[in-house]
Amino acid sequence: MSGPTPTPNPNTPSGVSSDTPPHRYTAALADQIEQRWQSHWEAQQTFRVPNPGEPGFDAKRPKFYCLDMFPYPSGAGLHVGHPEGYTATDILCRYKRMCGFNVLHPMGYDAFGLPAEQYAIQTGVHPAITTKKSIETFRRQLKRFGFCYDWSREYATIDPAYYRWTQWIFLQLYNAWVDPRDAKARPIADLVSRLESGELGVRPDETAAASGATTRAWSSLDTDAKRRVIDNHRLAYVGETTVNWCPALGTVLANDEVIDGRSERGGHPVLRKPLRQWMFRITSLAQRLLDDLRPLDWPESTKAQQADWIGRSEGAEIDFPVEMKPAGQIALRVFTTRPDTLFGATYMVVAPEHPIVDRVLAAPGPRTHADKVREYANAARNRSDIERMESKDKTGVDLGVDAINPATGERIPVWVADYVLMGYGTGAIMAVPAHDQRDFEFAQAFNLPIRDVVYNRAILAMRFFTAHAHPDDRVDEQWAGVLADLLGMVATNPEADLVHCLALARSRRLTRSDVGTAVSIGQDLAVADTPGAIGERRGVTSIIWLDALGELRLKNFADLASRFARAEFHKESGGAFDAAGHLVNSANKEVSLDGLGVDEAKQRILDWLERTGRGTRKINYKLRDWTFSRQRYWGEPFPIVFDDKGNHHAVSVDRLPVQLPDLSDYRPVVSDDPSPLLERAGAWAHTTAAGAGVAPVPGLPSLAPNTPVKRETNTMPGSAGSSWYFLRYCDAHNESRFVGEEAERYWMKPPRKGALGGVDFYMGGNEHAVGHLLYARFWHKVLFDLGHVGTPEPFQRLFHQGLITAYSFQRADKTLCPNDEVEEIAEGRFIEKATGAALTPVVAKMSKSLKNVVNPDEIIAQFGADTFRLYEMYMGPLEASKPWNTRDMVGLFRFLQRVWRNMIDEQTGRCLAADAAPDTPTLKLLHRTIAGVRKDIEGISFNTAIAKLIEFNNHLSGVVQGSGAIPRSVAEPLTLLLAPFAPHLAEELWQRLGHTRTLADEPFPVADESLTVDQEIEIAVQVLGKVRGKMIVPAAADPKAVEHLVLNDPKVQDYLGGKPVKKVIVVPGRLVNIVV
Questions:
Q1: Contact 872/883 with Cβ under 8 angstroms?
Q2: Nearest to 407 by CA among 339, 335, 455, 356
Q3: Does 640 lie in the same domain as 702?
Q4: CA 322, CA 749: separation in Å to the nearest integer?
Q5: 929-952 average pLDDT score
Q6: 603 vs 584: CA distance, rounded Å
Q7: What is d(CA 570, CA 947) in angstroms, rounded to the nearest whole number?
Q8: Measured distance CA(687)–CA(706) in Å, rounded
Q9: Are 317 and 423 found together in one domain?
């Protein structure tokens, strides 16, 4: 592929200093070079990569699929933080292409969502128009950087041709269920077939299970019951959940979009309301989502975040009987990870949303203060989960009913409190205040019982002391000292026998002469792990334990004994004990946990619970099902309709896409009652089964064609289009499939054996760890189970670029002053223009409100895109946060000027490359640079790669100044090394070196290993530890040869002065030390 016509000289007298050489690399010349090569790449489709089966596809090349998290095209366009990740992947992709890979590097736009709708409301311009204009701005800015995207694969999630397949994937989940036998998704038709065959029956809760005495036959159910059974298994289902409803914005908000009860966008009040919405049963794949994190090449911190979000915990579900009048006894079920502490449960707490609250209010008993309960529950229900968990004040109300602790048989009160959440576990807890700090604080606040059931070794020793101390050891002058001595020995040797330890502790005046006696009393005591006598060592530990006992505020021995007798040691100590230990006070007629460690006690109590029917082993997850509905306009329509009974029906895939209607009035009506905006599209929403194209459901009768139906008027969330976009890039214009099978198998093939996915390198911010990255994994696993994709994971390697921050200015009260209101009155001194008050420069996130956003267009105009790219990569490690400083751009611009000057005569424009061979130092440094740059690119260490290029170019400046020319065998590999980082300048130099083809397809230089290692090295020579000189020795010489060379050197012999050599120490590659 031939290159464009050489760039003309733009350094004309206008705007350029008269003493500027006419062919110097300036911003004006950089602009012309960059614009020209960008036009060339676009015209020649240089970076278009064919799919398997298409003309030009080379099956012999390995593949490399590199992906950026695609941007949301806001009206403000890019700021300088956006291109950081894009530049990094561009470097990697150009390098991989030059290394012989088929590189897929696409770009598109995540364009549905609330921000576009709000911007349209503010401007009065339809979101379809504003979003397309924003996309045009983003595309222009991205192209100006010269990124090597395959623009033939570009799309936006708002394109009907794209969201047709988003709707299709939704229907795949709607028509699928998860088979509990292997936790894999299968078609609903498979479930119906197994029900019809009798292999599965229907349980009373209308879910499927193996046929047995407690199940009903499918054939015995009527149509409505069959429909409910099917709907109870769909991966996409309609469920009721409590949401954050913002009346002003007219939509549901995620928890992280609500701050202190107000919307993050606009600061509007937010209500907590129960709402029926579309949900995904992501929890049904929770364990697989957790297990498959391990083989992924992701940052460990991100894997830990996602694992914590999934939140697997093992424990038990336990039923506590509750007397409800007039309904009789019901079971209040709790989930706990500490069933071993069951004997310590002294009260129960339910979430304000728990059904028992409304049942109590419907028929309050004599102890129930109904008005207080109702007022408290209503207020708590209107607070988000995050607000409730962050609140430090413990609040609650007694429900006025009692539960029975199944282990102790005691009646314990049931409270309602906002620190218990309905979304985790069962929405009810057994409170064990002695061993959970939140329960402890609640019990203290409301004077509820606190009973010890777990002690560690030290507390067990204290309890042992109260039971076995000699009467002489209980007096005020003695007991604390003896006990402190006992605790010191127990802490030293946890395996020591308490009887022996107590006997030894009574001899508090033990001296060196008594060591033998001590060892004979307690053979297992570790008495020799510190210098000196055992008494000396025990004295130190005794002081420590005396201090600890002082903090317990014990009055006397009787006070200590009383605390254990009442099982209130932890209560009197002022806090819960939640660490491991041994069980105490935990026995009934059927089971005893006393003396067991926590793990053993858990298993014993679980065995007892299951044997007696009081509870079962249970694995629980913090992960909640994914809420998928939004009440806004600007989103993908659901391919769903409802009949007049409220039953939902899927639209046939051949009727997709269900297009978003053109709604002229998309402003939300401020209302406490959620109402989707698409309700206004009456003609679109109301149709018939035939008009909508309702699909049949296996096992159920079809709707008559003329049956009136209403379309779903909620829209999908912004996460819909981004949960599968990486697949569409593989085959962006396929009209018959969401992605062609051959293309998907090729581009998403795991890079090696044992890998699970997918995209070879995925770049994006770590703020998506538990949102997009989790949702995309869920969708992909379902598609994998259903046979639509070939890998179980979407992204094999993940990398998070660091945040690029900006300087802001802080007032004395720590608030930030907008940058356009700041004046620099002297070097490094800043004041606020309006007040004259001094300001302190600080680093903060770029924000439009702070006016510290830097527009990349301005930087490129001033320095060029190549300089911009180099600067962002040279700022520091890619994964680190770094402050932007435009002043630092100059250094990288000068580097490119020196590269240009070393190859192009600034006066004549003549290429300085000559066929002369390079000198040995230059050749060696070249190959070291090649090896280093290769290693750094592979390791995503671009700042150090650029540093190596700068170092080599500085060396070349001396070569060119000395000879007036640069060896061609050096200039060409340097240009190729520079190509991934500054591609425009590299293309220009490559052409001026006489090449007619683009260097994008040229092989990346490979180092000659023999030239990267020195044949000779310099070592230091020491005599009696003092450096006396340096010597050149062969790099490969063994220590004996080096010793021989050094001892026979005349200068060394002069230093030795004839003294006999006692020893020669050789440190390979560094020094030789001679001892005389």
A1: no
A2: 339
A3: yes
A4: 56
A5: 98
A6: 16
A7: 60
A8: 9
A9: yes
pLDDT in tens, 900-921: 999 999 999 999 999 999 999 9
Q: Which of 678, 681, 716, 671 is nearest to 249 (CA)?
A: 671
Average pLDDT over residues 524-551: 54
Closest CA to 602 of 361, 917, 842, 338: 338
Question: Is 719 within 8 Å of 711 (Cβ atoms)?
Answer: no
- 702 occurs within a structural domain: yes
* Burial (0-12, 13-18, 19+ Cβ within 10 Å), 1036: exposed
Verify that 266 and 317 share a domain, yes or no. Answer: no
The C-alpha atoms of residue 525 and residue 528 are separated, in whole angstroms, by 9
How much is the average pLDDT of 127-147? Answer: 97
Q: Is residue 418 part of a domain?
A: yes
> When comparing pLDDT for 320 and 1069, which is higher?
320
**Domain that includes residue 1043, residue range:** 1014-1075
205 and 228 fall within a common domain: yes
Q: Which among 693, 719, 745 is the end of a domain?
A: 719
- Whole-structure pTM over 0.85, yes or no? yes
Query: In this structure, is residue 869 part of a structural domain?
Result: no
What pLDDT is stored for residue 144 in this prediction?
98
Q: Is residue 149 part of a domain?
A: no
Q: Give CA–CA dist 450/435, Å, rounded.
A: 9
Whether residues 460 and 360 fall in one domain: no
Comparison of pLDDT for 828 and 219, the residue scoring more = 219
Q: Is 285 helix (H, G, I), strand (E, B) or coil?
A: helix
SS3 assignment for 190-241: HHHHHHHHCCEEECCCCCEEECCCCCECHHHCCHHHHHHHHHCCCCEEEEEE
Q: Do 268 and 210 belong together in one domain?
A: yes
Q: How many domains does the chain have?
A: 5
> Which is more confident, 1 or 898?
898
User: What confidence tens digit (pLDDT) does each residue in 433-481 have?
Assistant: 999 999 999 999 999 999 999 999 889 999 999 988 888 778 776 788 8
Hey, is 258 helix, strand or coil?
strand
pLDDT band at 507 (very low <50, low <70, confident <90, very high): low
Last residue of a domain, one of 424, 446, 468: 446
How far apart CA 493 and CA 826 sit, in angstroms, is 66
918 Cβ contact list (under 8 Å, min separation 6): 926, 959, 967, 969, 970
- pLDDT of 522 > 60? The answer is no
CA separation for the pair 543, 540 (Å, rounded): 5
Token pair listed for 1053: 């012999």
875-897, pLDDT tens digit by residue?
A: 999 999 999 999 999 999 999 99
Q: What is the DSSP letter of 595?
A: T
Same domain? For 494 and 415 the reply is no
pLDDT of 513 over the 80 cut: no
Specify whether 425 is located in the same domain as 459.
no
Read off the tokens for 876. 């520091």
63: left (phi over 0), alpha (psi -120 to 50) or beta: beta
